[in-house]
Design brief:
Elements lengths: L1 E4 L5 E8 L3 E7 L2 E6 L9 E7 L3 E2 L3 H8 L11 E13 L2 E10 L2 E16 L5 E12 L18 E15 L4 H6 L1
Antiparallel strand pairs: 1-4, 1-11, 2-3, 2-11, 3-6, 4-5, 5-7, 7-8, 8-9, 9-10, 10-11
């Protein structure tokens, strides 16, 4: 079954250490994606998505402008980042590892999302919806995001490890098999 991301009920958030002892959080506000989920064999499922990098929001416009600049994401030349799954590994009890290719700027690397299928149900308007939680960690330097400033006391202004947390609400794009047969 094919599922489309509902952007009004989905969040893509990240966090990174600042000055080695505090955490800065942010989110992306514009994104798109779809999942093709095989309910009989989840390992045959596929995930694809993209994020409009200019939609980055950390709550501080000056920092966001710097993140959009050539020092970091260079949104003029690389307006989107992409993810495409390559394989899915079941972990049991609606838990999975989703391996895939993440492309940021012109660099593609494998990352692994830890996924929890939170369940599904019908909304008041008759649409089938599904919830999925996803988390991963990545090293920003692996994607060419290397800008930093050394601190006088030792260490760096911006941490290398980025934690990503995604809460997806999906809307079915076709009828479930049982309903399609009955119709």
């Amino acid at each position: 079954m094919n599922w489309q991301i509902d952007p009004t009920h989905t969040s893509i958030e990240f966090s990174v250490k600042h000055m080695m002892f505090t955490t800065v959080r942010g989110q992306f506000r514009s994104f798109d994606g779809n999942l093709s989920i095989d309910p009989h064999n989840p390992t045959n499922s596929r995930v694809e998505g993209s994020i409009d990098v200019a939609s980055i929001d950390t709550g501080e416009e000056q920092r966001d402008a710097h993140l959009r600049s050539g020092d970091f994401f260079d949104v003029e030349n690389y307006p989107k980042m992409f993810f495409r799954s390559t394989r899915i590994e079941p972990l049991g009890a609606n838990q999975y590892k989703v391996y895939g290719e993440m492309t940021i700027k012109d660099v593609t690397r494998e990352i692994v999302f830890h996924i929890a299928d939170e369940g599904q149900g019908q909304d008041p308007w008759g649409n089938q919806r599904r919830g999925i939680s996803a988390e991963t960690k990545l090293n920003r330097k692996d994607f060419g995001l290397t800008w930093n400033v050394a601190l006088e006391t030792g260490g760096w202004l911006v941490g290398d490890e980025i934690k990503v947390s995604i809460e997806l609400q999906l809307v079915a794009q076709e009828q479930p098999e049982a309903e399609a047969v009955a119709a």
